[in-house]
Amino acid sequence: MLTVPFGGAPIFTRSRALRPTGKVLPEHARSHNRSLVLQTLYTSGAQSRADLSRGTGLTRVTVSDLVAGLIAEGLVVELGQREHPRPGKPATLIDVDRAAFQIIGIDLSDHERFHGAVIDLHGAIVSRAELALGAATGEAALALVSDLVRRLIASTTTPLLGVGVGSPGVVDPHGVVTSAPNLGWSDVALQARLAEEFSLPVHVGNDANVAVLAEHGVTRHDDLLLVKIGHGVGAGLIVGGRPVIGGGFAAGEIGHVVVGTDGGPRCACGKHGCLEAWLAVPRLTAQLDAIGDDHRDAGSAREDILREAGRRLGIVLAPVVAALNLSEVVLSGPAELLEGALHGATVDTLRARTMAAHGRDLTLRMTEQAEDVVLRGAAVMVLSGELGVS
């Protein structure tokens, strides 16, 4: 995962791996062992082959064979001999070659711009690019994605490990965006299209599901809900250390849950009172701008709008928090909208609608990854997909 040390560049943390989700079959054993070696090196740092054998439980012969292959692939390097005061030949240290590859992360969740970055294996952002979305939808929006990837490829300085994309909407495990109304996409094979165009490994996921992968690395909890508020509203969920996507790949699609029975604003989907109609950034911004600075009580009117949006968010989240006994919820989106009145109203509503004994321990906070949470989660997705490292 990713975190930001005091005074330093962002780095992938070395302590939190997502839990495996299935039994290792014999035919998958080599791939599993390869990932185990890489994960151990990646999270623990340089060590000898003997250290790896002890740490992974694999035989020394197996470790030596796997390391030889990883060195040949350019993923692992020998760093020289360990300084050792005892007699005998000191062991040779090996580590993941963190300068060997870079990753492209793409964030399509902003309602105004598509964002992208080149990220190294330490998690530091090497370069950035962005393109204004304007009114582009459908094929025009797809062309912008391709253009953004092309620009980022031009700024890379090492071979690419792959491309990770966080897209709004429902995304299946094959990277098909089955539905993204705000972009005018339906059954768009985004992963396959980009992989064919650029001849690179590509991984595509829902933006909130991607974001929660990055946030998982900076929390002590194995149960985490992240609410992504941008062009639309969605949530990413990790329970027991495992991402939850649902049988129809739409877990966390809370944006079109109708909040309450009092009607409410008309949503783009045609219903009235959807959470997205209360909370999506374009809707909130338009409401706040409509007040105008010459309004007699402009400040109070804006706070009322933000508090009502926070209350509606709390109403939707309360049963989820209670059902899963969550102790941490993370918000991702524009801080100028989400902090303050909206945040306070959400907390108050959650506490009022859940058991007091549990509500006292609930934390609602802004993401520690700021506006880069999807970009960094996209990099985590590529690391996991290509190296088995999380």
Give the strand content.
Answer: 15-25%
CATH superfamily of the largest domain: ATPase, nucleotide binding domain
Q: Tell me the CATH architecture of the largest domain.
A: 2-Layer Sandwich
CATH topology of the largest domain: Nucleotidyltransferase, domain 5
Total number of domains: 3
Number of helices: 13
For the largest beta-sheet, the strand count, sense and barrel status come to:
5 strands, mixed
Structural class by sheet pairing and helices? alpha/beta
- In total, how many beta strands? 17
Order of helices and strands, N to C? Answer: EEHEHHEEEEEHEEEHEHEEEHHHEHHHEH
SSE layout:
Elements: E1 2-3, E2 11-12, H1 29-44, E3 47-48, H2 49-56, H3 60-72, E4 76-81, E5 92-96, E6 102-107, E7 113-120, E8 125-132, H4 138-154, E9 160-167, E10 170-171, E11 177-179, H5 190-198, E12 202-206, H6 207-215, E13 224-229, E14 233-239, E15 242-244, H7 275-279, H8 281-291, H9 298-324, E16 328-332, H10 335-338, H11 341-353, H12 356-359, E17 363-366, H13 373-387
Parallel strand pairs: 6-9, 9-12, 13-16, 16-17
Antiparallel strand pairs: 1-2, 3-5, 4-5, 6-7, 7-8, 10-11, 13-14, 14-15
Detailed description of the structure:
With 390 residues, the chain is of the alpha/beta class. It has helices at 29-44, 49-56, 60-72, 138-154, 190-198, 207-215, 275-279, 281-291, 298-324, 335-338, 341-353, 356-359, 373-387, and strands at residues 2-3, 11-12, 47-48, 76-81, 92-96, 102-107, 113-120, 125-132, 160-167, 170-171, 177-179, 202-206, 224-229, 233-239, 242-244, 328-332, 363-366. The chain has 3 domains: 14-96, Winged helix-like DNA-binding domain superfamily/Winged helix DNA-binding domain (Arc Repressor Mutant, subunit A, Orthogonal Bundle), CATH 1.10.10.10; 102-212 and 372-387, Nucleotidyltransferase, domain 5, CATH 3.30.420.40; 220-371, 2-Layer Sandwich (Nucleotidyltransferase, domain 5), CATH 3.30.420. The chain is built from 13 helices and 17 strands. Mean pLDDT is 88; it is low at 1-11.
